[in-house]
Amino acid sequence: MRVAHNKGEQVPPGYLIDEHGHPTTNPGVVVVPQSNGLFGALMTFGDHKGFGMAMACELLGGALTGSGTWHREADHQRAVLNGMLTMLIDPVRLGTQAMFEQEALAFEEWLRQSPDAPGSDGIMLAGEPERTARADREQNGIWIDDATWAEIEASEKKLAGR
After folding, report:
1. Beta strands 23-24 and 41-42: pairing type?
2. How far is residue 21's CA from residue 73's CA, in Å, rounded to a whole number?
3. pLDDT tens digits along 15-28
4. How many CB atoms lie within 10 A of CB 129?
5. HSE (CB half, 13 Å, CA atoms) of 2?
């Protein structure tokens, strides 16, 4: 959102609400304090299921880990709570490794048979967009707008002055 704001771009509808809870396409509502000093917020994706998933993530990553959940009164201060919970499941210990691998490959093959959405680059599974972006960036570099670059330099100067 910060990069879109710095570039002067709007975001698609359904991503944000302003400080009054109204839908907006202006990414600035989550980047800079608004007229009342408060910020807007990112919307959850996926309607009620996305909201439920966001709640589960907040409770697992915040409450269960002890890093806390967001339940402050609205104020003018910025804060980030970023607790994380990682669960590792070893199919070897469950005795299902061979079946898991077989089922995962069959499921991937089935997914890839889906028709491409108009204008898309085809079916992409988790990690593939990131690998494609990484290869492109290694070849062509990363373009950063002037405002974002100035923020990066300001952060560096602030940290160097510690």
Report:
1. unpaired
2. 15
3. 999 999 999 999 99
4. 11
5. 10
Which pLDDT does position 74 carry in this prediction?
67
Alpha carbon distances (Å) from 97 to 47, 57, 84: 35, 27, 26
The span from the CA of 38 to the CA of 124, in Å, is: 38
Give the global pTM: 0.54
Q: Is the pLDDT of residue 75 over 70?
A: no
What are the residue ranges of helices labelled H in the chain?
A: 2-7, 47-58, 91-94, 97-112, 128-140, 146-160
pLDDT of residue 60: 93
CB-based contacts of 125: which residues, under 8 Å, 6+ apart?
108, 111
- Give strand pairing partners of 42: 16
Q: What are the residues facing 23 on neighbouring strands?
A: 17
Sheet holding 16-17, edge to edge: 23-24, 16-17, 41-42
Name the DSSP letter for residue 113. Answer: T
User: Could you tell me what percent of the chain has a pLDDT over 90?
Assistant: 64
Within 10 A of 143 (CB to CB), how many other CB atoms are there? 8
Largest CA distance in the chain: 59
Can you tell me the distance from the alpha carbon of 41 to that of 18, in angstroms, rounded to the nearest whole number? Answer: 7
